[in-house]
Predict the structure.
Amino acid sequence: MFATHRRRVLPALLALATAATLALAQQASAAPAAGERFVALGDSYSSGVGAGSYLSDSGSCQRSSKAYPSLWAAANAPASFSFTACSGATTGTVRSSQLSPLNSSTTLVSVTAGGNDVGFASVMQTCVLQSEATCVSAVDNAIAQITNTLPGNLSSLYGAIRSRAPQARVVVLGYPRFYQLNGGCIAGLSETERAAINRGSDALNGTLAKQAANAGFAYSSVVDEFTGHEICSGAAWLHSVSVPVSNSYHPTAAGHSGGYLPAFRSAV
């Protein structure tokens, strides 16, 4: 009888112990996020241009409730969340106008910046409206700026972030590779132009990764997440040339939820 009783009780005790262990694990994983003091900095790739659902108080900065910082904050309920990313921001304007929420109690910072420093929008306009040779030349000029000028700009920005938020984990996110080569696009840019634009994106991401490492920051690429979802893939998470024009070459809402959010989450 005692043996039968023990056979019945032991599984129940094991089940209770397992449930208690899972509950403690869930509490432990939730606790750090609940205590986070999160500040989201950067350009339109952080503010959420192209994702829609723009916050009423964000004006021309076009901060979206569907941008990856908003999605992460909604899912993790940090102790505080300051969202200062703004469309059109450069490393200089991030440094001069977005850093005020940072302080010694800030625990987590996200940032995308660098594309506007090297004239990303102008390069894309050139490629859409002008010749193939002019497009490739514009990309090459941008890569020269990425190599020669951008590292110093990033170093200044990252130094300012670290100075204001000395205890924070800082996550620098990169930019997608824009085109799936030999994909489904039958019109628009040539394959040579698409390959040149991807080459520019790769150069930009390489510099971001290097400067983030130099600053002691985490770098999270989004290239893997967007693979199979580039323009010309048939399942794009990026707007091609579109109306409004400001959406062009920016992630859709799916690009933030399926691309940027997982990339950010993996680095937090």
